[in-house]
Every structure is written in structure tokens, then in C-alpha cells.
Amino acid sequence: MLYLIIWSKLLFIDICVFWSCLSGGSRCLVLITVSLALICVLLLVFIILQHNTITAERDLIKSYKNTKKLELETRVNNLTKSCFSLKIFFWLGNLCGPVCYFISNELKSWSDSRQYCRDQGADLVIINTEEKQVSFERVWIGLSDIENEGNMTWVDNSAVNQEFWLEEEPNNAGGNEDCIELMPSETIKNWNDLPCSENRKGICEKYTVKNFL
């Protein structure tokens, strides 16, 4: 549009100069000089406006690319956090069914670890078989005597039917060891009591839909 406007003005100037030169000789040189000056000014304006337009478009494209890049990086970071916040620990059944076990990626207190599991639709693991006595690091399990000192219960309020305590445990050292962790061990006896405020990862246990069908 801008190009057409400038082109029409140049054409108008050329026509005016042409008719002026036909009617008068001395004025022709002056008109030609003035018209050339006007043409130069219009061309300069055109070049400046074109440059500004191209610059604005380039900046807009750059801004768009930066925005999309930031959005992509944000999505990747969120997906990465989601993937690593739940590290698969081991599986029972096909494709995490009927029960899935995963270990959190962050160190938290027993209560915070349990809340983390609950936020994922799970809870700290209840260990009632030897197969669940597998751990490569110190992690919280769903056992404590927080509600009733000396009476260990699972997070579902069930009693302990099978115990896997380390030797001389539980000892309630200091009088405040109310939560239970699973210790790395070559034997299946690897439970240890310690203060619930200690920071550990937690093993979460989640029942899938298959379990309720």
C-alpha cells in the first residue's frame, strides 16, 4: 500500500514536470531540479519506512520464537520434574497392576513423605511379605507408633503381622523414634526406627483400578 502511494506521487510529479516543460523553457530546469529533490525525499522516506517495517517484523518474529522457546523449555522442565518426581522402584503384575510401588525423589520427613504419596493417589508402603523387603537406600515405610507409643501400626491402621527388624531394633533411642525406615541390607531384616523428623525418601504403594474391579 505504501509503495503504491509513493509510486502514484512520483507519477504525478513526472506528469506535472512534463506539462510544465512543454509550456515554458526556463522554468523547466527549475521544475526538474525540484522534482528530483522531491523524488529523492520520497524515496528516502520509503526506504526508512521499509527498514522500520522489516525491523519491526524481525523483532516480532524474534519475540515469537523466544516466547515459543520459553514455553517449550517450561513444558520440558515440567515433564522432567514429573518424570523424576516418581522413580519406579519395582513392579508387581503387568504395567503396574494390580499394585504399583514407586520411590519419591526428594528427601522429606515421614509425615511429608506420606503426604507426597497421598498426593499421588497412593500411601507409604505396607510391608507384609518378604518380596517387599527390597531397598537400595534408606527409605520411609508406612509403619509408626505415632498414634500410640509402643504400638506399631500401618498407615491403614492395620496391625503388624510380619516383622523384619534389624538386630536390637526397635530401640526408641532418645525416646522419640516413632517412625520406621527400610535400610539397605543383605538380609530381609532391615527395619529401623528413628525420629519422624529425619529426612528420607519414601516408598509409595498405589493400587490400580484393576484391584477394585
TrEMBL record:
Q: What taxonomic ancestry is recorded?
A: Eukaryota, Metazoa, Chordata, Craniata, Vertebrata
Q: Which SUPFAM superfamilies match?
A: C-type lectin-like (SSF56436)
Q: Where is the C-type lectin domain?
A: 100-205
Q: In the UniProt record, does the keyword Transmembrane helix occur?
A: yes
One Pfam family of this chain: Lectin_C
Q: Which domain of life is it from?
A: Eukaryota
Q: Which of UniProt's keywords are assigned here? A: Lectin, Membrane, Transmembrane, Transmembrane helix
Q: Where are the transmembrane segments?
A: 6-22, 29-49
Question: Can you name this protein?
Answer: C-type lectin domain-containing protein
Q: Which Gene Ontology MF annotations are present?
A: carbohydrate binding
